[in-house]
Specification:
The chain is α+β, with helices and mostly antiparallel strands. It contains 17 helices and 28 strands. It binds flavin-adenine dinucleotide.
Length: 608
């Protein structure tokens, strides 16, 4: 990068060049009169083959140059296990190391955001932005032949956004059997999931460019070579923001810039004449707020940080989708990604990918299914749901929990997401990184069925561990601290037995009498299912909500224009502002929220 004059104020300073941060930077710098600076802790790894090749993603996890590699505190409800939380530390943030699944939120879910006091944030208002970020490609004929995809509505706007969204060419019999097995349970998708309503199994799309077979992510899309040429957009990589600087002389503190640490350890200050936008992600946006004096008084005083704005909700209400992973040994002829443990197989596939982009390494072949509350007997009838909630009434006192209860009680909403994952999953008590979950260690070949709770009731926290930005914040997800989450998850795990039963198309692909993980545990009753959750639940890596958009008295950190309460010229734009975790995988909502935020910021410029 040519040398940049950091002394001259920028109009906007974006903290974190991740998924949301690059959307904001791109859209604000569309106006060539506006000077925008992005400051990203990691490097630009946009041409790195490990980032670009979808099938090599495991090579990124746990490595300091790509991954912040957070660990939770030991979780009492999960046999005191520690849970890993990978987070992208590079341009593009977590979109550079995610699993590329591209799903859309449900209408009821986003409407619930509005019902929690966020006017303007209902599904219909967000829908244009869910189209704006993407270019959706038509499914290849081979995937239609294998998986039908009749629900995919090709008349819906394809869009021309920076992120390429596509179906895979590499689905196989396991995907086909998955769809048929759910249909046999009365769960077949008939409408396009992009429209905000989906119940049943379907093939999801992925953020993969179908021409190059490479990852399509925030850096390749929103900071592509054309955008990088803009002289009014500066991206500073390998630079840490250590705090926000305020002018405290007026009635409210005004954000005027940031303090940075260059990669040589030099401390500098950079001015923002219009706004500072914090996009450091769910675990680090609250860290920077607290380091800057915005947060709970006790925490700030404990670390000798002068209080600028007292708000104990900063870093609270962290939400995450819990995911329970059960692996099943496959029959000898059933495809499993575990064969990649053989270096000869891996090398052959890498060679094929390098030659033409062909083969499984350029594809995402995960399958998905959404279901209402189900258990070992199938779909749970409304009266049984009511009884379950009645027995947990005392834990359902907040507006959040009432909104979630309504979603789970609705017959249109997906309580669970089930995933078909093509390899075995191992769960060490204290993993070194995300890679340990997905790299095969057992000698036999497996596939994994994953049970995810779309609407968790439990809330965790993330707070600084010291006054230095280098000290990783303490993340305590408090999984299943609301016991209702364990009860719901256990019912989903019971349902998995219906999917793997030898009589189903899916069960027929598993080895007769084969092994399963956790070993020897079959969810024949609720208590066994609860034990499977305790042993096999991890994170789907969808942390959100730590700087929630809500009325302040209900735990909010930002208002409906994503401005930080009690300050001027400071916003947060990333997954931390979500008031409720969206259904399914959340990158689409991160992109859409950031697109909408960019419009809000542009509108507000007129009044600054
Ligand atoms: C392993 C994994 C798999 C996932 N799979 C999927 C999937 O298949 N589908 C899906 O929809 N979603 C998936 N997700 C979730 C999705 O990718 C994230 O929710 C989303 O990318 C988060 O975006 P963000 O903008 O909030 O944060 P990020 O994209 O993480 O951006 C934050 C940025 O801020 C930078 N930063 C942090 N602190 C500082 C600082 N002090 N100074 C400067 N820069 C800083 C970081 O380096 C990072 O680049 C996955 C996530 C992970 C980790």
């Amino acid at each position: 990068m040519a040398s940049v004059d950091l002394e001259k104020p920028f109009d906007y300073v974006v903290v974190g060049g991740g998924t949301a941060g690059l959307v904001i930077a791109n859209r604000l710098s569309e106006d060539s009169d506006v000077r925008v600076l992005v400051i990203e802790a990691g490097a630009d790894r946009s041409t790195d083959p490990l980032v670009l090749c979808p099938g090599l993603v495991a090579g990124l996890y746990g490595k300091d140059e790509y991954d912040w590699n957070f660990m939770s505190t030991p979780q009492p409800t999960l046999n005191n296990r520690v849970i890993n939380q990978a987070r992208g530390k590079m341009l593009g943030g977590s979109s550079a190391l995610n699993f590329l699944m591209l799903l859309y939120p449900s209408k009821g879910n986003i409407d619930a955001w509005a019902s929690l006091g966020n006017e303007g944030w209902d599904f219909d208002s967000l829908a244009p932005y869910l189209r704006k970020f993407a270019t959706v490609h038509a499914p290849p004929q081979s995937s239609k032949d294998l998986c039908g995809l009749t629900y995919h509505n090709e008349d819906l706007a394809k869009g021309d956004g920076p992120i390429h969204v596509t179906f895979s060419e590499g689905y196989n019999v396991t995907n086909q059997a998955w769809l048929k097995t759910f249909a046999g349970q009365g769960l077949e998708v008939t409408t396009d999931p992009r429209d905000g309503r989906a119940l049943g199994a379907f093939q999801n799309q992925a953020s993969i460019d179908p021409v190059t077979h490479t990852r399509s992510f925030a850096a390749s899309g929103y900071y592509n070579p054309e955008v990088a040429k803009r002289s009014n957009l500066v991206v500073l990589t390998e630079t840490l923001v250590s705090k926000i600087i305020f002018d405290t002389t007026g009635d409210e503190p005004v954000a005027t810039g940031v303090e940075i640490l260059t990669k040589d350890g030099e401390k500098k200050q950079i001015s923002a004449s219009l706004e500072v936008i914090l996009s450091a992600g769910t675990l680090q946006s609250p860290q920077i707020l607290e380091l800057s004096g915005i947060g709970g008084k006790d925490i700030l005083v404990k670390h000798n940080i002068p209080v600028i704005v007292e708000n104990p909700s900063v870093g609270e209400y962290v939400q995450d989708h819990p995911i329970v992973c059960q692996s099943f040994e496959v029959a000898d002829t059933t495809p499993s990604g575990d064969v990649l443990r053989d270096p000869n197989v891996l090398n052959a596939l890498v060679g094929m990918y390098q030659a033409s982009g062909a083969g499984p390494l350029g594809q995402s072949t995960i399958s998905v299914a959404y279901s209402p509350l189900v258990d070992g007997s199938g779909i749970v009838p409304p009266e049984a749901k009511k009884e379950l909630f009645a027995s947990h009434e005392q834990t359902l006192t907040t507006p959040d929990s009432q909104a979630i209860r309504k979603l789970v009680e609705s017959s249109d909403e997906a309580t669970f997401q089930f995933l078909l994952f093509p390899t075995q999953v191992s769960i060490p008590d204290v993993p070194k990184s995300m890679a340990e979950y997905i790299l095969p260690v057992l000698p036999d070949n497996y596939i994994t069925v994953m049970t995810i709770l779309n609407h968790p009731f439990s809330r965790g926290s993330v707070h600084i561990s010291g006054p230095d930005v280098h000290a990783a914040p303490v993340w305590d997800p408090k999984y299943n601290s609301n016991p209702l989450d364990l009860e719901l998850l256990a019912r989903g795990v019971e349902f998995v037995e219906r999917l793997v039963d030898p009589s189903t198309p899916f069960g027929k692909l598993l080895k007769d009498g084969g092994k399963r993980q956790p070993e020897g545990l079959v969810a024949t009753d609720l208590e066994k299912a609860r034990e499977i959750v305790r042993q096999r639940q991890i994170s789907v890596f969808h942390v959100s909500g730590s700087c929630a958009m809500k009325p302040k008295e209900q735990g909010g950190v930002v208002d409906t224009r994503l401005r930080v309460y009690g300050t001027k010229r400071l916003r947060v734009v990333d997954a931390s502002v979500f008031p409720l975790e969206p259904v399914g995988n959340i990158q689409s909502v991160v992109y859409a929220v950031a697109e909408k935020a960019a419009d809000l910021i542009k509108e507000d410029r007129k009044n600054l």
